[in-house]
Amino acid sequence: FSIDGSSFLAVTNYVSGASTSGSAGGTNVVVYQWQRVPLKLRSDTYGGSGNSGPRAFVAAQLLPSLGARGITFFSIGSRHFLAVANYQNSSASANIYNVDSVIFEWSGAHAMFQAMQFIPTHGARDWEYFALDGRSYLVVANERTDGSFNVDSVVYEWTDSPGMFQAMQFLPTHGAFDWEYFTQDGRSFLAAANHFDGVTYAVNSVVYEWSGNDSYFVAAQSIPTYGAAGWQHFVVAGNSYLAVANFRSANGSNYNVDSVIFQWNSTRGTFAAVQLIPTHGALDWEF
Fold first, then answer.
1. pLDDT, tens digit, for every residue of 156-193?
2. What was the pLDDT predicted at 40?
3. Which of 14, 58, 186, 227 has the greatest count of CB atoms below 10 A from its CB?
4. How far apart are CA 243 and CA 70, in angstroms?
5. Of residues 219, 236, 238, the one with CA closest to residue 275
6. How far is 214 from 27, CA to CA, in rounded Å?
7. pLDDT score recorded for residue 177
8. Radius of gyration of the chain (CA)
């Protein structure tokens, strides 16, 4: 992402330690900035020469996090934000998944991000930002609490006064991993990737449609998925598609499960499966 002509990368670090059994929850999000590197810092590696110096992404800031699983950059007017989805605090004795996720705002005066809002979340996996009817929204994918995977995910609306996000709708989800916002035929949708309900991975994922008259989302279509981990919307040759990344079989014993491409049917106003693609523990699609 770019701010005031500078380019950045940000990475979420979920686990610290020598293996995946390390400590989740005590790591930092690292923000890297594309900048000139002093020649003494291995300029040969980056191909720099002379006095110009090489360029590379250099760690510019550490943002404290708790097992962060997702990060989203967005701008509202001239203000710039990073929303970090914190998943768990493994050092807590109870309620380890009930942790605040954090929205950081860029401070031009200090050339750094500063925490500006803490939002209670439950095993947060993902943030999705979108603008609709001139308003700005964030939706969080809440995967779980300590005792249940059936937990609401929440849509937040930006309010200029007092300059923060406020909860405006709670959507029932089941081990939610991902949200995808998209528009089709002048209509606005949110697709939830429901991963697990505590019993089975054969959980329907839901496409919600924005009801402009009522100013909230309503369930428009329920789609069979298997450990859904991500949605991707895309358009090819004027046709609209949704791709779901299916992670594992219904009972969780097999990761060799088809992911599915769905095509929009304008007449029916729904998506229908058009292609099955063999995948193995699929987590994401990118178009």
1. 999 999 999 999 999 999 999 999 999 999 999 999 99
2. 59
3. 227
4. 20
5. 236
6. 41
7. 98
8. 20
pTM for the model: 0.92
Distance CA 70, CA 87 (A): 9
Number of neighbours of residue 67 by Cβ within 10 angstroms: 25
Query: In the beta sheet, which residues pair with residue 193?
Result: 178
Q: Which residues are 118's β-sheet partners?
A: 102
Q: CB of 11 within 8 A of CB of 69? A: no
Is the confidence at residue 22, as pLDDT, over 70?
A: no
**Residue burial 224-245, b: 16+ Cβ < 10 Å; e: rest:** ebbbbbbbbbeeeeeebbbbbb
Q: Are strands 135-142 and 124-132 parallel, antiparallel or unpaired?
A: antiparallel
